[in-house]
Design brief:
It is a single chain. The protein has a two-stranded antiparallel sheet. Helix 2 (35-44) packs parallel to helix 3 (53-66). The protein has 111 residues and is of the alpha+beta class. The termini are far apart. The chain has helices spanning 25-29, 35-44, 53-66, 99-110, and strands at residues 5-10, 13-18.
Length: 111
């Protein structure tokens, strides 16, 4: 099956407009999309636009296969607990660079 797309202008960027006629979730997943393209598809079809590329792709594929609109996941990221930072400390799980980390980087790596 051939994917029917059209280049359109969105926020001063060229993106693909994806047509859903006879497009399966499997075929949809076999192509690469920019997040802007996924969000544009969601807006055009009344799907929630929040989430990362993976979540958007899965939501769209499910919609193409079933016609059902999945709600956006309602989970806030837990703020990681950052203990004392030293050069020998282990990087914590779900690492997010914070001001504490930047201070260590500036003191020990940049100088």
């Amino acid at each position: 099956m051939e994917l029917r797309v059209e280049n359109v202008k969105l926020n001063n960027s060229n993106v693909k407009r994806i047509y859903k006629e006879e497009l399966s979730g499997e075929t949809f997943r076999s192509f690469y999309y920019l997040k802007e393209e996924l969000v544009a598809f969601c807006r055009e079809n009344g799907l929630p636009t929040s989430g990362g590329k993976l979540e958007l792709t899965e939501r769209i594929a499910h919609y193409l296969d079933t016609g059902e609109i999945l709600p956006a996941k309602q989970g806030k990221m837990k703020k990681p607990v950052v203990g004392e930072l030293t050069l020998s400390a282990t990087i914590e799980p779900c690492f997010v660079c914070s001001e504490k980390h930047r201070v260590i980087f500036k003191e020990h790596i940049i100088h």
